[in-house]
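We emphasize that the prediction below concerns an isolated chain of 413 residues; any contacts that depend on oligomerization or on bound cofactors are therefore not represented. The input was used exactly as deposited, without trimming of termini.
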Amino acid sequence: MTTTDLWQRLRRDHPRLLDAAGGAALVAVVAQGVSADQNNGHFFLPGLASVLLAAASTAAVFLHRRFPQAVVAATLACTMALGVLSTRLTVALAAPLLAALYLLAVRTDRSTALRASVVSAVLLAVTALAFGPGGPIGERLGVLAWALLPGALGDSVRNRRAHLAAIERRAERAERTREEEARRRVADERIRIARDLHDVVAHHIALANAQAGIAVHLMDRHPDRAREVLSHLTDATGAALQELRATVGLLRRAEEPAPLEPAPGLDRLPDLINAFEQAGLPVRLTVAGEQRPLSPGVDLTAFRIVQEALTNVAKHARGADAEVTLAYTGSRLALSVANGRAAGRPAPAALRQDGPGGFGLIGMRERAVAVGGRLSADRRPDGGFQVTADLPLRTGSRDTPAFADQEEKDLHR
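Result of the prediction step, given as a token string:
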């Protein structure tokens, strides 16, 4: 531990101990000043008035924490009186005043310390000229330097402390900002992982549930077809476990390798539709316009929206068919998933796309907005339900709504 660190620790943890040590040193200096003859260097027994003035001046310094300006005034008055009673106004006699000026400069602003230093210097100079012994005027005006030096030193110390405090505040603020950013990123990652888990689990569990229902229905009359459906059920649950393992793998330790399987996109749409058809949901795919490559984020978003929308149809509109439409126009992709009214069910049944407490529509909207697109979901006139998404072909393109809104904000700054 360095001397500076030790001093800072003592000043922070034991201020009263430092006051006691400084007071003892001040008493010793003032006692020497009132009992020494400056003309011949001998010591003598000081008068009662000098002792009382020295004691009062020294004791006043201990109140500097609560009354720094009053302490300066009291020590200045005592020092001037000692200058009148003594043969010469010395630094030892003015030690309490110099300490008070230093502490005032440390604890207050620069203008207050400067005014106190100038007033003290002028009054001490007048006292030395009026009551001091004869001699060169420059020597008698040396008290000016005594009074101005502590204020300058205290101002320097105060500025240094303020600078160090500002550095500490900036460091603390930067640390808080880093912690807040880390918490925000963790929250975002948790939301993303939760959304992926919902997409994967809801899709495959809905398929498995539908296939299991079909198998139970066919078990007595058509055992061969029931066996075939059960084989597809095995494939669906195996795929669910595989995707679930890959998604939960995001929470792995840092030293574990990342999964190498690419994220799904619209190229896997035929497999997705085939899985739903095996579960008893007829799906018709329509592609309009020239197919164009999508950025990875948009490709994954489009696939997940179709997957979630078809999953909701399979769960909440059994007996209905579904139609998936992909329309490529310019730099946009218009995507829709629509289903007719479920046979034998009232119209409102198809409206509850998520069911009580579901998060499917919320997740789809979040995914669409994240890549700069929009998503809407509403019932159809025939009682079915339709999910429509408008996505850019590439994230960050100049005609995406998010980019356009940001550009308009920048133009108005």
